[in-house]
Design brief:
The complex is a heterodimer of chains A (231) and B (462). With 231 residues, chain A is mainly alpha-helical. In chain A, 68% of the residues lie in helices and 3% in strands. Chain A is globular and about 55 Å long. Chain B is an all-alpha fold. Classes of the chains: A mainly alpha (231), B mainly alpha (462).
């Protein structure tokens, strides 16, 4: 049986992704959370985000602490996944018709060639690109360079913060808005980890992130509960 | 045995126990009341007086705890505020015996008490911020309760918490490191944090819907008890950074935001479509007054802020209890209580409930002969001496509040008796508790100098 690689070996294996590539991946995942309406893809993007943020955190804190962040991120995505599955991914339950469920409206779809996409998909794609490009341009300027932070981390911090804000304000749906909360908090954590003791900072953000995930899970459940469908 | 550890752990365990017992209301409430009594006893048994050699350890309980290089200390200030917090929570539980709340009410309040205590006993601002935010997350769930459907109000509150969290951490970092190149940003960050935490313009939008959508006693927790802890945390930051707080621009914007909140509430009161919204707008007047008081600056401003928040708890308790009694008169206690009823009918069916609601509303508005009057009058006299326009706004707001409440009480000949929903009989216990609460409110109106001296003592201890 082969040996399980250590954290340091993992980091060595993923060395090609460290630095700016990780920052770009994080920015892309945040954009995907904004663009995708389907919760499954959004949660997958959030999971990838947490995995790559762990790589970024490994630059500013001991790798074993960064690994803890990844574990916490996996737990958060697990909480959201189970919650989303219990409410049928925000869709109507299979045995409830659209006429019966007065609160949840049918998603409007448009045909783009062979594909059926939500009507607001072009707007979301445009918004995601606009925010990503704006962040990329602003972080080139000296005035937007955060103290104690490397360039690639600077890009990741602003990218996550901006995307998280946009996701938060774009919807009041707890699941999607909650992912915006988590994205924003992750962005701030990247910065805060450089200025605060790594262990204390990690504990603070772990507690906050898990609390947010649990609250989001509860609010999603009540938002999509059966009494709400027929109220 | 370390008291801070027990203050953090006991409510958590009790909260879980109360959650498991939630099907039996009496058992849940007894768990809550018992927990509060234990915590109060723990506070009483913990000595916070510094001995000659600097040691503070009592015979049974220590008042300090250190974990991960973060220290927690129960000093006299946190002890006094915790006593107020536990008293408020205990009375909330007792009142929920007669005015039924969600089955999650007691468990969630207990779960919130732990991090709120942590906020008060944490020695560093960053640790206090962590606990405060966790406590407010629990309050988010309390606001939603078991109500299925719209989560708009709770999500708005949640959004504000998430926005204020990084700001508070940044403030904590700047205060703890005292790096001069970043101190210039501190007034701005403090300003935003204060406006969010005190729910002033433009972060006021979720206040009135909370009164409408949540159970009657929930606003006492969210706008009263939690606000008290928030105010103590904020005042602690201010006292540690007097130069930052003395920033003239910061104070100016605080006064302007508070005044804007009051003006907005004044206008909305005159067109309130429901009793719940009316109470919400009256609360906004109180919130705006608190922000104006903070914007006055100096020690008097801090004392007034502390006083206003403590008195608000009484006003919210009375108004909330009265609102809960009136909601019982409708077939369903969910949703809003529109003015589609005859006040004469309510006055006949629930006279004490209506009286309590009106008196609590008057207190929130700061009308005379209510607990809220002394604070509003003090604010008016101090503000008018320096900023006449603020004094005028406060006077107009109080008059408007009186008009709004009177409007609610005017008979509406367009409403037919048949449109009123079916009634629920009031129990004798409910009436007795309501009458006692009314009497307590009158007593608090008479002992306002005592409450003011309490707030002065609290500020002196910062």
């Amino acid at each position: 049986m082969g040996n399980i690689p250590t954290i340091y070996e993992f980091l060595e294996y993923l060395d090609f992704l460290r630095g700016f590539p990780a920052a770009y991946v994080v920015l892309i995942t945040a954009s995907l959370i904004l663009i995708f309406r389907d919760w499954r893809w959004s949660i997958l993007a959030l999971l990838i985000q947490y995995l790559v943020v762990g790589l970024l955190l490994a630059d500013v804190m001991p790798p074993h602490l960064a690994f803890m962040k990844v574990i916490i991120g996996i737990f958060i995505c697990l909480i959201l996944f189970i919650t989303a599955q219990q409410v049928n991914w925000g869709r109507l339950p299979e045995d409830v018709t659209a006429e019966e469920a007065v609160l949840l409206g049918q998603e409007r779809l448009l045909r783009f060639g062979p594909y059926m996409l939500p009507t607001d998909a072009p707007f979301r794609i445009f918004l995601g690109l606009a925010v990503a490009l704006s962040v990329g341009a602003l972080t080139q300027k000296a005035a937007f360079h955060l103290p104690f932070v490397d360039n690639h981390l600077n890009l990741a911090v602003f990218g996550l913060f901006a995307m998280g804000l946009v996701i938060m304000v774009l919807t009041s749906e707890p699941m999607k808005s909650g992912m915006g909360f988590l994205t924003l908090i992750t962005g701030f954590e990247l910065f805060y980890s450089t200025v605060e003791q790594p262990l204390a900072g990690m504990v603070i953000f772990a507690v906050i992130s898990l609390s947010i995930a649990l609250a989001i899970a509860y609010l999603t459940q009540v938002r999509h509960s059966f009494p709400a469908l027929f109220d | 045995m370390s008291t801070p550890v027990l203050l953090l752990i006991i409510p958590l365990i009790a909260g879980v126990g109360a959650f498991l017992l939630r099907r039996w209301q009496l058992a849940t409430i007894l768990t809550g009341v018992g927990t509060v009594l234990i915590l109060t006893g723990l506070l009483a048994a913990t000595d916070t007086q510094v001995l000659v050699n600097g040691a503070i350890n009592g015979p049974f309980f220590d008042n300090t705890w250190v974990i991960l290089e973060r220290s927690f200390k129960l000093d006299q200030l946190s002890k006094d505020v915790l006593l107020i917090l536990y008293s408020g929570v205990g009375f909330l539980f007792l009142f929920s015996l007669v005015l039924r709340q969600d089955s999650l009410f007691v468990p969630l309040v207990l779960l919130a008490v732990s991090p709120l205590a942590g906020t008060l006993i944490a020695e560093s601002i960053s640790t206090g911020t962590l606990f405060l935010v966790v406590g407010m997350v629990v309050i988010t769930i309390l606001i939603q309760g078991e109500r299925a459907g719209s989560t708009l109000t709770s999500m708005r509150y949640f959004t504000l918490i998430v926005l204020v969290f990084p700001i508070l951490l940044l403030i904590a970092w700047m205060a703890e490191t005292s790096l001069s190149q970043y101190l210039a940003w501190m007034p701005f960050l403090l300003l935003v944090a204060f406006l969010i935490l005190l729910f002033s313009f433009p972060f006021h939008i979720w206040v009135s819907p909370t009164i409408s959508e949540s159970k009657a006693l929930v606003p006492v927790a969210s706008f009263g008890l939690v606000q008290l802890v928030v105010v103590i945390l904020c005042l602690g930051v201010i006292v540690e950074n007097p130069v930052v707080y003395g920033n003239a621009r910061l104070l100016q914007v605080l006064r302007a935001s508070g005044a804007a909140t009051i003006i907005l509430a004044t206008v909305l009161i005159l067109t309130a479509p429901s009793i719940s919204r009316l109470i919400g707008y009256l609360l906004m007047i109180d919130l705006g007054s608190t922000t104006v008081a903070l914007g006055l600056g100096g020690k008097i401003g801090l004392e007034l802020v502390c006083y206003l928040v403590m008195i608000r708890i009484i006003g919210l308790l009375m108004a909330g209890f009265g609102l809960g009694m009136i909601r019982r008169q409708f077939a369903s206690d969910s949703g809003d209580t529109y003015l589609a009823f005859k006040v004469e009918t309510l006055a006949r069916r629930s006279p004490i409930g209506l009286a309590l609601l009106i008196y609590g509303g008057f207190s929130l508005a700061g009308l005379p002969l209510t607990p809220g009057f002394a604070g509003r009058w003090t604010l008016l006299t101090i503000a008018s001496s320096q900023y006449q326009w603020i004094g005028l706004i406060i006077v107009v707001a109080v008059v408007s509040a009186g008009i709004g409440l009177a409007r609610m009480m005017l008979p509406n000949p367009a409403i037919q008796e048949e449109t009123v929903h079916s009634f629920a009989d009031e129990t004798r216990a409910l009436r007795i508790v309501a009458a006692l609460l009314l009497a307590v409110g009158v007593i608090f109106a008479l002992i306002s100098p005592l409450m003011m001296s309490l707030s002065q003592n609290l500020v002196n201890m910062l």
